[in-house]
Queue: 2 jobs
Job 1
Amino acid sequence: MYTQSLDLPGNPASVTAAGDDASRQAAFDARMAADNKIEPQDWMPQAYRKTLVRQISQHAHSEIVGMLPEGNWISRAPSLKRKAILLAKVQDEGGHGLYLYSAAETLNTSRDEMVDALHTGRAKYSSIFNYPTLTWADVGVIGWLVDGAAIMNQIPLCRCSYGPYARAMIRICKEESFHQRQGFDALLAMMRGTDAQREMVQDAVDRWWFPVLMMFGPPDSASTNSAQTMAWGIKRISNDDLRQKFVDATVEQAKVLGVTLPDPGLQWNVERGHYDYSPLDWDEFWRVINGDGPCNRERLATRVKAHEDGAWVREAALAHAAKQAARETQREAA
Ligand code: FAQ
């Protein structure tokens, strides 16, 4: 049937299930060394499969939970135009979650298993979505900074060694790039408005800046997964290097916007050719990812309730599919 896979029958580079473990491992290693993609039906080490399921499913959960902070503002958007844009953006995030769950399903894990891991607190989602959206300016800041950080992290994932993940990331990055611009545009409109609007934007930037820098993950020295995922070509750039690239790009954008980034240690380092920034509060980061951030309980409870409330839709869809299949069988038999 149809497949996401790009490898073709007879392609000598494909890692087939034939042969002993050592020869399959050697074929996999050769593929990695040549920077070729691994496809769903290829043989892969269990640990590679497991780490992909971990990262892709956590990424999917982040997109789905990430709909909540902005979703809270759909009914309170300041104009019809901003409401339509926000509705479309939040829907896009839902779509990203679905492509990513589908990419993870190609690794032989079911959607139910992944969702259950999220709902029972066994799977993580991005720390950033455990912070509250207090004002309309927070929605603009999520677009500008959170989507901005997400793109910085995700562009290299378009070159990830696992084909379905890499391909999902291409479309996701295009949409995230639009999200980032809409956030910047919403903030620019407020910065050109009243003093109260400018203060609201500055307050939102002050609250989100440090949590956004933590989205890139712990410092490289504390990143337990990086060495292996980089060796496997899943991650291409380290947490600290991506964080630095983001800081360097965003300082310039903040100048255009006319906001101050809330870090007195932020200054250009001529020798390094990068901006220096102050150490981040990693205790806060670990607290948030371990379930004790400002909104962890609320976010998870909302997701669980949405899943339970949607049970009748899943049941109806299954009943419809069963009825269609029975009709098809009857037609074939007639
Ligand atoms: N939050 O060894 P590392 C978005 C965990 S999508 C929570 O460095 P790794 C779109 C990590 O899982 C945002 N947990 O981990 C949007 C690991 O624990 P584990 C999501 C975090 O995997 C915008 C432990 O710490 N993006 O924003 C975080 O090599 C607006 C040790 O860390 C992705 O998921 C964190 N920030 O690197 C939606 C991108 N950081 O699993 C709505 C794909 C680390 O061993 C609105 N993922 N941890 O128990 C990645 O690139 C990587 O997984 C990292 C973490 C970079 C997130």
Job 2
Amino acid sequence: MITFDSVSKRYPNGHEALVNLSFQLARGEMAFLTGHSGAGKSTLLKLVMQIEHPSRGQVFVDGQNLSRMRIGQIPYLRRKIGVVFQDHQLLFDRSVFDNVALPLVIEGMEPKEIKRRVQAALDKVGLLSKERLNPISLSGGEQQRVGIARAVVNKPPLLLADEPTGNLDPMLSRDIMHLFEQFNQVGVSVLIATHDLALISRLRHRMLTLGQGRLLQDGFVGEVGV
Ligand code: ADP
Ligand code: ADP
């Protein structure tokens, strides 16, 4: 689903955020991306989303070489990728339903199909009963669930998350990780950047560790000493 082939990323100020990075995330695989602040985790995710571009090497997503992609194709790539942010980026001027519906409205989907899809996504995150509320009235954990529903509503084959539990307490964080596992179990490929090693130490998944833009470790949680 994701291939990095000898990828380096140097920002215009000269800082090298990723150095000769190679790895693959298989279709249907779930992995954590860890490392200290500044290790390059967000940069890696931005390269997958085509928000940033490699200085050297190649990135492939779902078999497509991103450096060969025309600008007009980028929206189609983004539709294949659901993204969950630490601060969920919900809009507080509209309901939970309308927040989750947004990606489908942008695609121009039929209202009837939008309703079915949004309700299915809200049901999966346990928030169907709150579809009419404004997200501002929800707890932090519930707001993050709305963010996840919005990320999966158009059934992307790939789900990316950047510190999705950064603002949540340990119990809510475990619930959120469990949700990601459930999407993975129905075939979605999942890559989650987190520096919360205590949280993932009990989850049996692959863990890629970055340090100063290099891949330091690649193994299963537990095997690599976490
Ligand atoms: P992480 O997500 O692991 O905290 P980042 O990918 O955000 O790491 O950052 C990796 C390094 O690249 C850091 O040293 C950061 O300061 C630098 N960096 C990130 N974005 C930019 C940018 N737009 N311009 C210059 N340097 C950047
Ligand atoms: P279908 O369209 O197959 O009838 P539903 O619309 O009932 O399925 O369920 C759609 C929900 O499935 C999405 O809103 C989302 O919660 C979840 N989902 C997300 N990505 C996938 C995927 N790749 N495969 C299966 N289900 C997914």
